Prior knowledge:
Distance between the termini: 31 Å
Mean pLDDT: 88
Structural class: mainly beta
Strand order of the largest sheet: 3-2-1-4-5
Number of helices: 2
Number of strands: 5
Shape: globular
Low-confidence stretches: none
Helix content: 10-25%
Amino acid sequence: MPKAKANWDDESNEASNSFVSWGEVGDFILGTLTAVREVASTLPDRVGEMQKVYEFKVAECRYHLLDEKKNPIEPAEEPQKGEIISVGGRKTIDSRMQRAKIGQVVGLKFVEELPAKTKGYNATKLIKVFFPKNADGTPEMDEEWLESQKEEKDF
Length: 155
């Protein structure tokens, strides 16, 4: 067995959280939709249900992680251009994302927190979905990323 690299587990080498948590109004992601997956929900009242997870190649992004009491942690996370991040689906996001195509440029923004309709539940985070358009009105596609996917398939 090869010897482990020294200091591989140094704190500076730790992978950052790549799952957007929508910690503060104004948090956003603008990027290329690269994949849509379905995973089993981890929410106690949704056991057995499947949840969509959207993966994006970042163009611009800023979001806040949450502490144990669900308060935003400063400073905000700012993934670098080209990093892959994930966004968990929910009814409002899923209904709008049905029209998105893999390779399309998509924006999501946390615009408002609405009080919970049921006592004891968390407030509802209103996330708006945006589909940037080209000058001719067609959806903006990440042609460079799409081409790279064709090249990978050719291998």
